[in-house]
Specification:
Length: 334
């Protein structure tokens, strides 16, 4: 017997790629007669809802529900879609993603085996556009130097983890831990998993559960994304201080350290030498990573592109985190 599955997808202005996700869901090895797709659209202005309706009309074998996300945030989209769904199992996905054919089947199997209360897998980071900087961002977003210990971006070893991207879980779990926190405009997945752990549950990472994830295609979009991540990470950590990890603390410590050295260098010449040494070492390491990736992928532009992307991720995440401490009021939804 197969449990009924509801695939939950927050969505906003994804007309260009939404068909890739829907095609991938149609091609799942899990029986589609036991699966529905619920998409919560946050008021797209590029014709995404029309594209979803048109796709659904030509593929009636897969049930696709389109609901409106009135609050226009990611956690409210997830909750709206969950409330409009009927499956005993919830599989959360992203409109920027494309699951491998066995994604739903493996997720459901892990839950039925009792691996954990929430299960998820690997993001295979893909470029958002066919451009050298977009390709560089995709490589940087999957590199340990760029993302620290976020195993779901690169690891091939299964095990218990703090969090997974999106995840799959039983609807009954929501009766125990509640829906997603709509006061957080980012890091809502991490906060949800923190409540699972507080409730005595576990989160399981299985590298055989895979999906392609399309990264931001410009440094500006990447900076906006990681600023938002950093800002809302601090808001989440205020509630769950014990969940902080070294990889999360390093960017704000690094940025604040540079600011302190820059201020001290006005009055203390040695601080200027220290600042120059730290910056030089940092740039040297990033260039080594860029060179390594350029050789590995045979893409010469990675020598510059990958360091620029990693620098953008580190500094915007770090400054966003620090700004969250200084000015904890709500920021725009970004």
């Amino acid at each position: 017997m197969h449990p009924d599955v509801s695939v939950i997808i927050p969505c906003y202005n994804e007309r260009r790629t939404i068909h890739l996700l829907l095609d991938a869901l149609l091609a799942q090895t899990f029986p589609i007669q036991h699966m529905e797709v619920v998409i919560a659209d946050g008021g797209s202005t590029d014709g995404t809802p029309q594209a979803i309706v048109e796709w659904s009309q030509t593929h009636p074998e897969l049930v696709v529900k389109l609901v409106r996300n009135e609050k226009k945030t990611i956690p409210s989209a997830v909750n709206t879609a969950i409330q409009a769904s009927s499956g005993a199992t919830i599989v959360r996905m992203d409109a920027h993603s494309k699951p491998h054919p066995e994604y739903v089947e493996r997720s459901v199997a892990a839950l039925l085996e009792g691996k954990a209360q929430n299960v998820g897998g690997v993001w295979d980071i893909q470029p958002g556009r066919d451009h050298w900087i977009a390709r560089s961002i995709a490589v940087a977003a999957g590199h340990p130097i760029g993302v620290g210990g976020a195993r779901y971006r690169y690891s091939e070893k299964p095990g218990f983890v703090d969090t997974v991207p999106f995840g799959a879980f039983s609807r009954k779990l929501l009766d125990e831990v509640g829906l997603f926190d709509e006061t957080l405009l980012a890091n809502e997945d991490y906060e949800f998993n923190a409540r699972i752990h507080q409730n005595g549950g576990k989160v399981w990472f299985d590298p055989q559960i895979r999906s392609a994830y399309y990264a931001r295609s410009t440094l500006k979009a990447l900076a906006k994304q990681y600023w938002r991540y950093g800002y809302w990470k601090w808001q989440m950590l205020r509630r769950y201080p014990k969940t902080i990890r070294l990889r999360q603390a390093l960017p704000p410590l690094f940025v604040s350290g540079l600011v302190i050295l820059a201020i001290l260098s006005i009055f203390w010449p040695f601080a200027l030498w220290m600042l120059a040494a730290v910056v030089s070492l940092y740039v040297f390491v990033l260039l080594l990573v860029g060179l390594q990736m350029a050789i590995k992928h045979r893409q010469f532009p990675f020598v510059l592109g990958v360091p620029l992307a990693i620098l953008t991720m580190h500094f915007t995440w770090g400054t966003g985190f620090l700004w969250g401490i200084i000015c904890p009021q709500n920021q725009n939804k970004g």
